[in-house]
Amino acid sequence: MPQRKTGTTQQVAIVPHLQPTCRYRIVALDPSVRGADKKILTAEVEIPNEKLSPGPRGYRVQVIDYDASTQVLYKPTPYREADKLKTPRDIEKDRAFHARNVYAIVMRVLARFERALGRRVGWSFLGHQLTVAPHAFTDLNAYYSEDDRALFFGYYPGDNGNVFTCLSHEVIAHETTHALVDGLRPNYTNPSSPDQAAFHEGFADIVALLSVLSLREVVSAALDLEISPKVGLIGSERLTETALKEGVLLGLAMQVGEAMYGTHGVALRRSITLPKDPKLARDPKFQESHRRGELLAAAVLGAFLKIWRERIVQFGELSEGKVSRQGVVDGAVETAERLLTIAIRALDYCPPNDLLFGDFLSAMLTADYEVYPDDSRYGYRNALREGFLSFGFKPGAFGQSEKGEPGLWSGPGKSPLVYSRTHHESMQYNADEVFRFLWENRDLLIIDEDAYTKVEAVWPCYRVGSDGFFLRETVAVYSQQMKIMGRDLRKLKKELKKPADMPDDYEFRIYGGGTLIFDESGRLKYHIRKHILNPKRQNPRLEHLWKQGGMNSRKSFAALHLERVLRHDVGATGGAEGFAESEGVDE
Amino acid sequence: MAKEPSSVKVRMYNVGFGDCFLLSFYYKKPLADQHILIDFGTVGGKANMKAVANDIKKQCGGKLYAVVATHRHRDHIGGFSDAGGPASTGALIASLKPEIVVQPWTENPIADAMADSAPLLAKKRRAGDKRIFMASLAAMTSFAETTFNQVHNLRGEKGRAGTLEKLALNNVKNLDAVNNLRSMGKRPPRFLQYNSASGLENSKLLPGVKVRVLGPPALKDQNIKKYAKDSEEYWISSKYWGLQDRASKSSAGRNLFPRQPRFQRSRKPIHTRWFTNRADGSLKRNALSIVTVLDDFLNNTSLILLFEVKGKKLLFPGDAQLENWSYALEQKGIKKLLQGVDLYKVGHHGSRNATPKQLWELFDKRKHGLTTMMSTSPGVYHKSEEGKVPAARLVRALGSQSKLKDTQKLKGARGPLEFEF
Fold first, then answer.
1. Which of A155, A547, A553 has its CB closest to that of B256?
2. Residues B217 and B235 grouped into a single domain
3. Using alpha carbons only, what angle is made at residue A399 by residues A395 and A401, rounded to the nearest 5 degrees?
4. Which residues of A touch B136 (CB under 8 A)?
5. Those residues with Cβ within 8 angstroms of residue B29's Cβ, 6 or more apart along the chain or in another chain
6. Cα(A546)–Cα(A125) distance, rounded to whole angstroms?
7. Which uninterrupted H or E stretch holds A208?
8. Which chain B residue has the Cα nearest residue A164?
9. pLDDT tens digit at each of 587 positions of chain A
10. pLDDT averaged over 10-residue windows placed end to end, chain B, 421 residues
11. Same domain, yes or no, for B148 and B185?
12. Domain with B306 in it
């Protein structure tokens, strides 16, 4: 196709340079958050560069501006290079800016995942391009729909004009995270424990929050709420952990708008203000999935504050009692970036199903250890351990690992695994080859051979280690399931208990599986496993799900968000006994 | 003088997906027999409501003692509509001159006056719990009405709009029926909540019959503040329905960006066609899930009545679900009271959520003579894949642990199915 000049209304755009990244202007938080100049706070972000078609339509994200409520399909605005960094006069009325804003934020989150994981990351559906509808319908909701391969952003008349969910950075990052996590760990939406039910929401909040906090403009503006703007030095008394938490973070959260933005703002506010209390993990009030998700966000946020504070201390005072403002902002942005990397990378070290918060903690610790064995400077891993423990979550990995640090997954030790029947090269990308390895070693790896077993993914990854060398790993994920009837449980293993009034002929599925991490020479480094017949895990899971009546159902993200707005769990009843304490991955 | 009825008969009419129960209390002369009609409505089926109304008239000899409307859903009160004039079923029931009509407190016209949702939409304007609650209820029915009116415009994948239409219709204001119910009683209507006097007990007309009100809980007793430790969050969720109602109305015939260029429907670019079709479908699914939530909400305004007569206990919970039940079940003595239930009117046409296990397991007479009556129709609507009504697992339990009378067995015949003692 012939290329035409930029600035015209033609269908094909020219990318003048072939540099790998480019910069876009986005809404930093949401339109209710204003900068010192009283204008909507915006930020510049760096995202992958590509040859875009009008929409924008790119290789991973395509914006189709269709409004289903009025059945109007808007024509895409012609693509102009100069628009990327433009701040429109009226952001809320500029449809083309809305489209660029969602495109850029979705791409930024995707690129962030790819950078952290050291490989390309797919969406959870077949295909490459996620469709984004920035004005999908008049509704208070915004959600990811796997079946429609799309993100839908609603809009609705608020008190002062329309509220556009497509202008909320947090909402966009949150929904994009669902689309990515659902691809990486499709089983996390299966019915399991309160932890797993809460994970998607909690994790999406963490990514959204850290994405926002890694923007210099946001942190700088947040400091201005507390401290007069444009001051180069800040009094250190304003930078205690409490002051950062209550002044800066909470101040920011309080600014986040009402209604749809507000539900996020409220979750944020609550995660920030939750009092540290190790009893909360078992508290019945925190078994409901959205509240429990707030605990997860609060644990990571606690770590963020501790490390930020530590960095400010280490940065030192420039003159007596005064700290450099630049240093404070840098501290926040770098801490948010690093924690975001840890959180995303941890997904590779998580079990494929029945995830508990403690497992996620161990995954974060192990993922970070692999790249940065020395944690003495700012103590990221200690801060994470403390953050989780302060709400009652212990690492899923018990005891001291051979690495000499608590909470890390252990390696397989000196087990005589058979490698000679599989090919090293093929093991890095071929699911059949990995399955052969599993089958050959099923006794040593304790894998049930009667369950339906599938190697779901084999991902070669490259990460840069602290020594400057590539850390090369292959992540392989296998899942197991059995379709059984109530009466089969005891036959499978005598310790497996059927819930008291479950009929013998009631049919349902049980799940298991594991994550295998191979090192660069193809040797198994970690096997993070949930054995399918482990009664310690399955019995409380079955009991909990039977009580809930949701043995075989899977909730859509749209339904999850509706519940979140309304703060009640429609259709789900009953407590969550037996799941509150982290049971960890099967040792 | 006999202090209790010589016999009691419960008739369950086949109204498709809906409820219609006639409780008849037969006394020895000189006392007159008395009849209480509990609900009269249907949705989405082909029930012959006229024939049912005529049979009610015949059975009660032209005079009802009372009418109970458990909650404002079309499948419970639609038959009381007198919109069709003197020939309507609503007019026919009104001609049976009930002494009294009882309804849940949420139907109180005084509450209606509070139901103006406009002030609640104003930014930061706070209002009392009751006002917010009533405004939310009003916004819900209004939202359902808009959805019902717009449903024929919805496009996209087939098959779902029918369910949405029925569910939306079930939740509209039903004003004709509501107004008729308010005016048909000889005495002023009563609006009940947990533990209020039912107004049905009467030592002269209805001796030997005790009626307890177990639900809905009064607003102050509801668990609505469960997640609302900080009032801001509560405010947002309470505002939700007002906003949703406003949003649904605003989309009708209005474009967001009127001056922006758009594609004609027939000229959509090829790469957008699959998606726009999906988006239309998603809008429908979204509307369905919202209407489902408000359907559940209204179900939980159901009156729950326990009749005690001739040593037997008859439980009529309307469509109450767990949220409604949970208050009563936490109160002292209620669990014990419910242990001896002899007849259970299956809540909400056999849905999973309306017969919570905590309740079902209380009934001591399961497997020992408990009778259950279920008025339902399959495939009329199921709210979601896991929420099919009636729920197979429940029906199986009812069938194996009680003497189940099920209108599905009537195969379209009017019935009624009877329970007598």
1. A155
2. no
3. 95
4. none
5. none
6. 30
7. helix A194-213
8. B256
9. 444 444 444 555 555 557 899 999 999 988 888 877 888 889 999 999 998 999 999 999 999 999 999 899 999 998 888 899 999 999 999 999 999 999 999 999 999 999 999 999 999 898 999 999 999 998 878 899 999 999 999 998 877 788 898 998 988 999 999 999 999 999 998 888 889 889 998 999 899 989 989 999 888 888 876 665 566 778 777 788 887 887 777 766 666 655 444 455 566 767 777 889 999 999 888 887 778 988 999 999 999 999 999 998 888 777 777 888 888 899 999 999 999 999 999 999 999 999 999 999 999 999 999 999 999 889 999 999 999 999 999 999 876 677 788 999 988 877 788 998 888 889 999 999 999 999 999 999 989 999 999 999 999 999 887 777 888 999 999 999 999 998 999 999 999 998 887 888 888 889 999 999 999 889 999 999 999 999 988 998 888 888 766 666 666 666 666 666 554 433 222 222 222 223 334 43
10. 85 94 94 95 84 94 95 93 91 94 84 50 55 77 86 70 80 86 90 91 93 86 47 58 80 77 92 93 86 83 94 95 84 92 94 84 91 88 66 88 92 88 92
11. no
12. 7-111+169-223+298-420
Q: Is A68 within 8 Å of B279 when comparing Cβ atoms?
A: yes
* Predicted local confidence at residue A580, as pLDDT: 25
Residue type, B64: L
Strands (E), A283-347: 317-319, 322-324
DSSP-derived letter for residue A317 is: E
d(CA B375, CA B373): 7
| Contact at CB, B293 and A566, closer than 8 angstroms | yes
Q: By the CB < 8 Å criterion, does A141 face chain B? A: yes
Q: Which two tokens stand for residue B227?
A: 């997640």
A69 lies within 8 A of chain B by CB: yes
- Give domain status of residue B2, yes or no: no
Nearest to B227 among A150, A558, A567 (CB): A567
pLDDT digits (tens, 9 = 90+) for A232-272: 778 777 788 887 887 777 766 666 655 444 455 566 767 77
The chain B residue lying nearest A94, using CA atoms, is B257
Determine, yes or no, domain membership for B75. Answer: yes
Q: Is A468 left (phi over 0), alpha (psi -120 to 50) or beta?
A: left
Residue B38 in domain: yes
> Do B93 and B135 share a domain, yes or no?
no
Which among B227, B236, B265 has CB closest to A262? B236
From the list A70, A158, A559, the residue facing B251 with the nearest CB is A70
Q: What is the ipTM, given to two decimal places? A: 0.85
B122 and B23: one domain?
no
Nearest to A289 by CA among A164, A192, A358: A192
Same domain assignment for residues B163 and B287 = yes
Q: Which residues of A touch B286 (CB under 8 A)?
A: 137, 139, 141, 558
Pairing of strands B100-104, B190-192: parallel
Q: Quick check: A573 contacting B, CB < 8 Å?
A: yes
Chain A interface test: which of B262, B325, B388 (most A C-beta within 10 Å): B262
CA separation (Å) from A32 to A156, A163, A220, A258, B162? 15, 10, 17, 8, 39
Pair B231, B337 in one domain: no
- Is the CB of B276 less than 8 angstroms away from the CB of A559? no
Domain residues of chain A, as ranges?
21-184, 194-389, 426-541
Chain A residue numbers with beta carbons less than 8 Å from the beta carbon of B260 are 74-75, 95
In this complex, the residue of A549, A565, A570 whose CB is nearest that of residue B237 is A565
Residues of B in contact with A565 (CB under 8 A): 236-237, 240
- DSSP sequence for A504-569: TT-EEEEEEEEEEEE-TTS-EEEEEEE-TT-HHHHHHHHHHHHHHT-SS----HHHHHHHHHHTS-
Measure Cα distances from B121 to A264, A466, A542, B241, B321 in Å: 19, 54, 44, 10, 29
Which residues of chain B neighbour A258 with C-beta distances below 8 Å? 123, 236
**Number of domain units in chain B:** 2
Q: State whether A72 and B272 contact (CB < 8 Å).
A: no
Q: Search chain A and give the residue with CA nearest B275.
A: A148
Q: Is A284 on the interface with B (CB under 8 A)?
A: no
Residue A560: closest C-alpha in chain B = B289
B377 within some domain? yes
**Chain A residue closest in CA terms to B283:** A68
